[in-house]
Structure formats: structure tokens, C-alpha cells
Amino acid sequence: MVRWVDLKDSISNFWFEFKRQKTGILGILLLIFWIVVAISAPYITEPDIPDKWKTIWIDYPKTVPPTWVKFFTGVEEAPHYVIHSDQLQQYITTTSRGVIIDIPYNMKYDVPPQDIVIMDISGNSTNRRLKPSLTLKVKRPDGEEITLVSGLKIKGSTDVQVARDSSVRKAVINWVKQKTGVQLDPTKEFELITTLDTLKVVFAQVSPDMLDNPKPLKGEYHIIIEIKTPKGTSVDLSKTEVIFTGRTYGYLGTDDKGRDLFAGIVWGSRVSLSIGIATAVLTVLVGIFYGVAAAYFGGWTDEIMMRFQEFMASIPSLPILILLGTYFGGHIQLWQIVLLLTVFGWVGIARVARSMAYQIKEQTYVEAAIALGAGTGRIIFKHMVPQLLPYAFAQMALSVPGAVLAEASLSFLGLGDPTQVTWGQILHDAQNAGAAVNGYWWWVIPPGLAIALVALTFVLLGTALDRVLNPRLRRL
Amino acid sequence: MGMGKYLLIRALNALIVLSIVTLVVSALFVKMAEKDLENRIQELVNSEYQSLVQKGRAPADPEAWREERIAYYRHQFKLDRPYWWRVLYYAKRTITLDFGNTRIPIFGTERNVKNIIALALPRTILLFTTAQIIVIIIGLLLGVKAAQKVGSLFDRALSILALITTSIPMWWFGMMMLLIFAFKLGWFPANSMPDPNLTGLAHVLDVAKRLVLPVTTIVFVLFGGWAWVTRNIMIGTMQEDFIMAARAKGVPERKVIYGHALRAAAPPIVTMTIFSLLGSLGGAIITESVFNWPGMGRVYWIAIQTNEINLVMGLTFISVALYLIGVIIADISYGFLDPRVRVGASAKM
After folding, report:
1. Strand A219-228 versus strand A133-139 pairing type
2. Helices (H) and strands (E) in chain A — how many of each?
3. In the predicted model, what is the mean pLDDT of residues A2-22?
């Protein structure tokens, strides 16, 4: 029986020693930080992020940097601006033929918004052939007017994304041609229809090179949405929101689906921590018991167990993991990842545990216990494993980084759990979208730093624990 | 036990392990490829049927014809044999170094698995072994230096750097290097595929330029760990009695460190060297993918994605075999370098 007083005593002794390890203290602080982040993820961000992560966030800007970049670039970029449904009501006037929404927008930025998104316009129609139709115009401060969308039929609940639409681009290009009289050769025009940054031109000064080099025209704009409701149709705007998606977003920007990377990073900490810790604990337990058993039984059992250990050690583990990943249908669930990493991870620990257990077995009190007729289980659990516990604790902390990196690597290859938000997957998406080529640094740097920081946390803890718990190493 | 007998036992052991690994991988992969092959047979038969129809020679009884063709292909692909037979068949072929061909050519036109490996292995050796050698040299020098001045600013800075760099995912650091030095600054090419039009010195320079970013990445991520381990081993040796004796005799400090201490610390360092050199042969799959480096790791990934059984089997076999050879070499060299270790103790690895 372990007495409570002894336990308390050894804990306070341990703490006394541990306190003197500066790296250990830093490790604890980092660990607390990560635990707080992981637990409070639903409160710092939104509770439904993992579900939402699978979709495209249409009301968010796509691949934009964080808001704080303006302090470095000095360019004032349009922020994300949402007009909620209750605020929108004051811009609505109802006429006999339908509804007109006139939204004033003060464009005082060096770079105009990325997109104008109208969310959740609901059209009802009792007549099968007639539907409410929407026309969207922009009245500019220089008195010009551009029709971006004309006569769009509204069926059921509809979202309108102005800047992602090629017919809108076509309308804008035609307007520019008409206003400035520039001629475009067909290949150039075709290229513009797929690549033009629409709103940069809509909010630009009229000049012949406004398609290639738009200069912002600041001032008061009016976004006018006219909805015609022929007989038998009606439109419901009670939930409608209009969003001017920004050129920057949040603390860490967004990816190409408009997903808020800050939310992704915060939620990713959960997976990283739980996978890392679960794998490390399981791996070390399996390794310790395997090693101790081999040493205790000795002889042929030991020989066979060590042959098996050698066999496991000689398997190239990452390829086999990838193979199994594709075998499981391309995606490995989180618990499967833990299991697989454990299966391939215990090998090294088992070998060290075995050599340590051989030393312990030679000690007189173990021999005495055997002579007194103590059972196998008693000797292993009571006399041998507890001697290895200090080694085990340090080893657990030191195994976490490997597991975190392994999970991230698998997710990076696209084999991760698709129901979870993980840092590896964020980096996988970044790699697929050519984030490095396009210079989307905010999409590449934070997830990698987060992985490295979690790994560092446990490396710091592990080395500090190692020094305190394994006194042989203390002089280092 | 004599050296010869010991070697023989080790070699036998390695062969057994190699056969079992091959068998296991074969079992896994044969199962995986089954569905893929069935689909391919369907496609083949369909396209054959289409071409017959186009030539106006459509078979009278399409159903019977179809069945006959499917049976033919199933026999061709050995799908009519039981599962265990196929596992043994592929394992046996692999062990006798008959790797066969791939379906789709890799590296342009090459379909022979042996030739593909012969192309990829030198590239991986070029990249990872170059990097590994630089890592070992830098790591040893810095580690010894830190061990000389334990607790100094240099020692602490090195320890912290080692802890930080080992926490960084190598492939992420590679992405960062590409982002900064290939795309932002444009100093180095982003693609590692060598330019096929260049020959002679121009080719060497081209490859060297493409090597810079991946090598830097590997060196940066790995050197800290090496330095740290070397430091710890050296500190341990420096406290041994024979070092004290050497110092007392008045042997110059340089000679004490490089002549006595480093030689005594050599066995574990040599073992580590052998293992990391071997580990590097398999190529880091993801790192090679990030840099598009056409070595073993990249080929492995392509092979798994395209379900090339023969190629996966061949690559796995070669890397496991190399690893096992390395274990034996490490064992023997350990015995040579450290007379305290009895070579017969097969438990030591």
C-alpha cells in the first residue's frame, strides 16, 4: 500500500526539484496556455466550427490576410462590414412594383471590398412561371451608374455573390468599354472575364487603364437593389443580410474557402493535444510492459519477443501508415491514428525498458521476492514497473511531439480525419491551393508554428522531467 | 562465439525479418489492389467491346463474350487464384528481386521497377546523404564545443536552439523556405526536377542550385538534435577517470577532447551516424513531396497513390533490406570501436 503521506512527500520533493528547471516551468506555462485554448475553443470562436469547416463560407472574404497587416503595409484596406437584417430594414422602401433597397456605402479605403454578398433573400411564388427578380446597381460618387446584376430570378432562399460571377465581370467590362472607349483583343477580354477583380474596377476612377490598374475613387456610393415582385409573388427580406467582404479579416486571415483561419487554429489545438497525449501514454505503457515482460521471463520468451520487436522496428512506419490510410478508404479516423501510431511507436521504448528491467531483476530484493514465491504479476507490477515509472513519465512527455508531428504529417498528406479541424489539414489545403506560390503566408506560417509550439511544449516538459526524475542525467 | 558464426546468425535473422516484412506488406497490398484490378478489368473489357462494335464485329452473344473476356483477364491478373496464393506469389517474386513493371511509366518513360529504384535511390542519396553529412559535421563540432563549456551562454543557446528546431515539422519548414527563397525572393528554383536539356557542368550547377533549399531545410531541422546528443555523450565521457588521468599527465586540452574523449564517445555516435544515413535512404516522403524532389520518398508516394503494387513492394523491400544491413554493420562497428562490448551479445543493437 502506498501511504498518503509518502505520496504527498514525494510530490513536494519532486516539485522542489522541478521548480529549479527553467525550461520545465516554461513548458508548464505553455501547456496551461494550450489547455486553456483547447477548452475555450467554442467560446473564443463559434461552437459549430468543425461542422462549418466542411462548407464554403460564402459570407467571408477569400484568401485575405489578417487585419493587422495594415500596420506594416500602411495601405488602408476595406474591412469586413456586415449589414445585419434589422439594420437593413431602414434602407428598404416598398413600391407598387416591388422593393427597393438603397444602401449607402462610404468607400474611404485605398482598396475597396472584395465582394458584395447578399445573404438569404427568400422569394415566394404561387405562379409557376413568374418569379421575383433582382437587379443590382451601383451609383458612384462621380454620378455614374453601373448595373451589375439584372433580372436575376429568385427561387426559394437565394444568396448572391457579386464578385464571383463571370456575367457580372462581363457587365463591368462592357461598362468600362463604353465609358472609356478602350478596345480589348478577344484573348485579353476572355482572360479578364475569368480573372478580373470586379469590385476594384467598380470602385475605381474612370480612366483608360482602369481594368489593368484601377485607382480607388473614394466617396459615398449607393448600392441599389431593386426587386420586382410581379402578381402572385412576394419576397421575404426579414432575414436578409448584406455583406461587404473585406480585404483583410480577423486575427489570422482566411483561406480560399473563406474560412476563418484563427478559428481553425484554435480548434486544431484540441486534436493536436488529444492525439499527442493519448498516443504518448499508450505507446509508453505498451513499451514498458513489453520490455519488462521480456526481461522478466527471459530465455526463449525474451528471444522471441525481441525478434518481434526487431521486426516491428525494421518496418518503415510512415509508408505503412500511408498504406493503411488508403486501405481504410483514404481517411483515418482519430482513434485509428492513435492506434496506428501506438502500434509503430512502442518499439524503441520497449528496448530501453527491457535493458533497465534486466538491471532491476538482478537486484537482491527482486531475487528475494522470487525466492519467497511471489507471483509473476506481483513482481512485475509491484517491484519492476514502479522502478521504471520515472523513466516512463519523462518518456511520455518526450513522445508527444513525435505523435503530434506524425498526425500532422498524415493530415498533410490528406489522410486525416475529415470530420475534424486539424493543423495538418489546414496545411494540406494550403499546399493544394499553392499557398506558397501565391504568397499566402498567413495560411502557411500560423499552423506550422502552432504544431512546432505544441511539440516544443512537450519537449521542454520532457527534458525537465527527465532531469528531475532520472537523477543519473541530472549532472548534464 | 566467433565472429563468423555471429555474423551468420545475424544475417539469418535479418533474412527472416525481411521475409516476414515482405509477406506482411504483400498481404496488405494484394488486398488493397484487388478492387482496383476488378475495376480495371471492367474498363478493359468495356473498351475492347467498344472497339469491336466500331469495327462492326460485335460479338453475337455480348453476355457470354463479356464473361469469357473477364475470365481471361482475371486469369492474366491472377485474380482467379485464392488470396493466400497471391500473397505468397508476390512475396516470393519480391524476395527473388523480380519486381516486374509498373502500369504507368514513372519519370517519363521508365516502367521497370528495378530501373525506377536505380534512378530514384541515387537522387535520395544525393539529397539526404549530403544533408546528413553536413548535419553530422555541424552537430559534432557544436556539440563538442558546448560540452567543453557546460552552462555557458553558448551551451544554453545551443540547447534551446536544439529544442526548438527538433519541434519543427521538416516539411513545413520546407514550405516556408519555398515561400521565402523561391517565390518571394526568387533566388532558387521551386521545382527540384533537374532540367533535362542541360549536360556536363551546366547540369551539375543546375542540380546544385536545386539542392540548396532542401538541404538547408534538412540541415536546419536536424543539426540541433545532433549537437545536443553529442554534447550529452561528451559530458558523460569527460567525467570518466581516464580523462582526469590524461589531464593530470599534462596532455594538452585539445588532445584530451579530440583524441581521448571523442574516441571514447565514438561508438554511440558511429551507431547514430549509420542509422541516420540509412534512415535517409528511404527518403522523407513528405519532404521530397514538398520540394518535388524525384527520389525514393516521392516515388513511394506516387506508387501508393496510383496503386502500383509492384513498385510499392520493390521500394519497401529495398528500404527494409538496407535498414537491416545497416543494423548489422552498426553492430559490428560497435564491437570494433568499443572493446568493452562483447560482439556475441545479440541483445545489443
Report:
1. antiparallel
2. 18, 10
3. 80
CB A271 within 8 A of CB A407: yes
Contact A444, A436 (CB under 8 A): yes
Say how far apart CA B154 and CA B145 lie, in whole Å.
9
- Which of B17, B176, B304 has the CB atom closest to A448's CB atom? B176
Res A267 pLDDT > 90: yes
Tally C-beta pairs within 8 A across A and B.
127
A194 and chain B: CB distance < 8 Å anywhere? no
Q: In angstroms, rounded to a whole number, what is the distance separating the alpha carbons of residues A269 and A34?
A: 7
> What's the order of all strands across the beta sheet hosting A145-153?
A92-94, A98-107, A219-228, A133-139, A145-153
- Which grid cell sits at A260? 476563418
**With bands split at pLDDT 50, 70 and 90, how would you rate the model's confidence at B344?**
very low
For A63-110, write each residue's pLDDT tens digit.
888 888 888 887 888 888 888 888 888 888 888 888 888 888 888 888
Residue A372: phi, psi to the nearest 5? -75, -5
Residues of B in contact with A23 (CB under 8 A): 160, 163
**Closest among A394, A401, A390, A294 to A341, alpha carbons compared:** A401
B23 touches chain A (CB under 8 A): no
The answer to whether B242 and B257 have CB atoms below 8 angstroms apart is no
- Find cell 486571415 and name the residue: A253
pLDDT digits (tens, 9 = 90+) for A190-245: 888 888 888 888 888 888 888 888 888 888 888 888 888 887 788 888 888 888 88
| Minimum distance, in Å, between the CA of residue B240 and any CA atom of chain A | 13
Secondary structure of B165-202 in the HEC alphabet?
A: HHCCCHHHHHHHHHHHHHHHCCCCCCCCCCCCCCCHHH
pLDDT value for A473: 47
Percent of chain B with pLDDT over 90: 4
- Residue A447's pLDDT is 93
| B19–A contact, CB cutoff 8 A | no
Tell me how far apart the alpha carbons of residues A105 and B294 are, in angstroms, rounded to a whole number: 53
Burial code (b: 16+ CB inside 10 Å, e: under 16) for B205-224 equals: ebbeebbebbbbbbbbbbbb
Task: Determine, for residues A463 and B32 on separate chains, whether the beta-carbon distance falls below 8 Å.
Answer: no
What is the distance in angstroms between the Cα of B98 and the nearest Cα belonging to chain A?
A: 20
Pairing of strands A115-125, A156-161: antiparallel
CB atoms within 10 A of CB B156: 15
The alpha carbon of B183 is separated from its chain's Cα centroid by a whole number of angstroms, namely: 28
Instruction: Give, in order, the Cα–Cα distances in Å from B223 to each of A33, B137, B161, B220.
Output: 29, 9, 10, 6
Q: Chain A contacts of B147, Cβ < 8 Å?
A: none
Query: What is the rounded CA–CA span in Å between residue B116 and residue B120?
Result: 6
CA separation for the pair B108, B130 (Å, rounded):
26
Smallest Cα–Cα separation from B31: which of B107, B100, B90, B83?
B83
* Helical packing angle, A261-297 and A22-44, nearest 10°: 130
Looking at the predicted structure, is the pLDDT value of residue A476 above 50?
no
pLDDT-derived band at B339, boundaries 50, 70, 90:
low
More confident residue, A62 or A475: A62
The residue of chain A nearest to residue B297, with distances taken between CA atoms, is A319
For residue A384, the 8-state DSSP code is I
Residue found under cell 519537449: A459
What is the number of other CB atoms lying within 10 angstroms of the CB of residue B239?
A: 11
pTM of the model: 0.83
What are the backbone angles phi and psi of residue B294, rounded to the nearest 5°? Answer: -80, 50
What phi-psi label fits residue A196: left (phi over 0), alpha (psi between -120 and 50 degrees) or beta?
Answer: beta
Give A332's contacts in chain B (Cβ within 8 Å): none
